[in-house]
Structures are given as C-alpha cells and as structure tokens.
Amino acid sequence: GFGGGADMGERQPLPSDAVIISSNENPLGPAQSALSAICTTAALGGRYHQEETMKTIAVFNEQFGLKRGYSALFPGSGGPLDLALMSNIGPDKPLVYADPSYEQGPRAADTMNAPKFPVKLTADYKHDVKAMLAAHPSPGAYYIVNPNNPTGTMTPKADILWLIKNKPKGSVVIVDEAYHHFSNDESVIDQVAADQDVIVLRTFSKIYGMAGIRAGFAVARPDLLMKFSSVAAPARSLASISITSSAGARASLQDKDLVALRRKINTDTRNDTLEFLTKKGYKIVPGSQANMFMVDVQRPGTDFKNSMLKENVAIGRSWPAMPNYVRVTVGTPDEMKKFQTAFVKCMDQTHT
Ligand code: PLP
Questions:
Q1: Is the ipTM of this complex over 0.85?
Q2: Which of 17, 179, 213, 306 could form a disulfide with 290 if both were Cys (CB 3.0 to 4.6 A apart)?
Q3: Exposed, middle or buried, 17 (CB in 10 Å: 0-12/13-18/19+)?
C-alpha cells in the first residue's frame, strides 16, 4: 500500500529504546552540514524555488562530469527506480535480475506484466552477468544492485561493463547504486556520461542518513529520462522535491570528508561484528561492502527475527532464496553490542 519507506516492509511500532537494524538506515542521521542547510532553507519554504533544485542538480552533474539533462532529482531513489524499470519492461520486454536481490525489480515486473528471469548470484555472491545475458535473447532491462541488497556484496565494474558491451540492442542496464558510497569500487556513472544504455540510481537515504528527508538521483541519457513519462505522466512532477530535501542533499554532496568518514565508521563496525560472529562459529555471507550483512541462523529467518524482536532488537528479513539467513543492518557500535548479546541468546534457544 501507500506510505512507509522503501526497504521497510511492514515495520511494527517499536519501543523507543529498541535497536532498529532492520531497514538499512544510517544511525548517524543527516550530517550537521545537511541539517544546517535544511534549517536555513526551511524559512524560504513559502515559495516554490525551482532554482534550489537546479542548484543541486548542477553540483551533482559537475561532480560526476555529466552534461545538463543527464540527471534528475527525486524524493528518494525508489520512485525513479520504478520509473526506470517500468518504462523499459512489459509483456514482451522481460526483466532479468539477480536472486537474491532487492525485490523492487520483480515487483515492478509484476506490475507491468513483464516476464521475470531471476538469475542466481555466483558462488561468491556476485551478479552472474554471463548467466544474465544468457537468460533471454531480448529483455527490456537488466537490473543490477551494486553493492547488492541483501548480501552487501560487489559485482566488479568490469563485469557490468561486459554486460553493457554484450547486451542486445534495445535493452537497458539499470544499476542501483544505493549503497555505492560504502564500497571502495568505482561507479558506472561514467557509462552514462559516455552515452551508454545505462540508468544509474543514487540515494541520500543510506550513507547520507536522509532516508526520512527523501532525496535521490536518476542518472541517464536524456532520452531514457524522458521515457519515464511513459509510465507516469508527468514524471516531472514526481521529480519536484522539497527545497529542504534539495538543500540537505546539496550540502551533503559538498561536505568533503563526509563519505570517507562514514564509510570508515561503517566498515569498522561491520567488520567488528562479523569478526565476533565468525569467532563464535556462526556462518556469514562474506564480502559485504555495504551497511548490511547476512548471517545463517540455522532455522527459518522469520522465526529468528521474531525471537530477536522479543529481545528488543529489530533485524531485517530473510529472502526465499536463502530462507535460513537474515539480513542485519550495521548500527552504532553500541547497538551492535546489544545485537551480539541478543543474537547469541536467541541462537542458544532450542527451536523446533
Ligand atoms: N534501492 C535499494 C537497493 C534499496 O535498498 C533501497 C532502499 O532501501 C532503495 C533503492 C530505495 O531507497 P530510497 O527510496 O530511500 O532512496
């Protein structure tokens, strides 16, 4: 239904002291620079101020070497992700995507009555681009999430470039870079600048901690962005974001040390947690370069998630392809200590 966030599922009301590591949010929230910009800008909120949005788009384009018209600013990336998917798939234009991966791909395919071609991740949890290419002779779109949600694992840029080069004419490669900033790998936004059939999604919900403020970019050739209007008329009105969101996004982009600092905080906390779990003998999905990881709970993940909830720790869901694994978001060091205690307790509980 309507309402709720992009990755939330149905989140139950939780006690105020609950550890919430279920929806890949950033426990640090917006940066101080973003908060200041948001406050200052709120006072100007009586006017439409389209130039506010234009400024943010100009900063983004400059940072990524994009020409005018190659990016659009939206309230979050989930909306433009739907538009990117839906404007390129349909009954005779299938969607090829990875399994397990972010469910918005197959959900959009259902909406559009587009045939679905899920392709298993490789043994080391990369998108299997060779198998994706072999899945169908003429898909409408390939959907790649990099780093992947829920595994946090990376698909090498070289593999994505291979797919772009070898894919059939008329299909697009949609690369969801929601978690890109947490990794050390290169973006494929340069492929958009090079006029390839590529649509990249970026969000301010993750490393920038603005999930509730809402800002995100669709990056693509102007003709591919124009096509968004074929599924939502007019798509431009969806791109009308509040001036506070725009100002917060721009301040975040211009905050020079922010990404590196937050990437390090996330990496350290994630690695500490994974080291703890590994030492205790639990099996994890290795190689996460994002603010999430998966762990084997040796029982249906949904049951385990409910046990953890009783310990006041809200963890993420499981995926049909990996039913005994749960996804856990990286919280603060203190939150991850509470997670560890609750995790060991719940794992020690007998289950049937
Ligand atoms: N793409 C992926 C892979 C996500 O995990 C999410 C949210 O969790 C989104 C897109 C959409 O997020 P938002 O609309 O907040 O940018």
A1: yes
A2: 179
A3: exposed
What is the per-residue DSSP string for 24-55? ---TT-S-HHHHHHHHHHHTTTTS--HHHHHH
pTM: 0.96
The mean pLDDT of 300-306, rounded to a whole number, is 97
* pLDDT reported for residue 1: 47
Write the single-letter amino acid at 79: G
The closest-lying atom of ligand 1 relative to the alpha carbon of residue 24 is 8
Ligand 1 site, residue 176, Cβ cutoff 6 A: yes
Task: For residue range 65-102, list pLDDT tens digits in order.
Answer: 999 999 999 999 999 999 999 999 999 999 999 999 99
Domains of the chain: 19-24+257-348 (3.90.1150.10), 32-254 (3.40.640.10)
Going by pLDDT thresholds of 50, 70 and 90, the confidence category of residue 248 is: very high
The answer to whether the CB of 81 is under 6 A from ligand 1 is yes
Q: Distance from the CA of 67 to the center of ligand 1, in angstroms?
A: 25
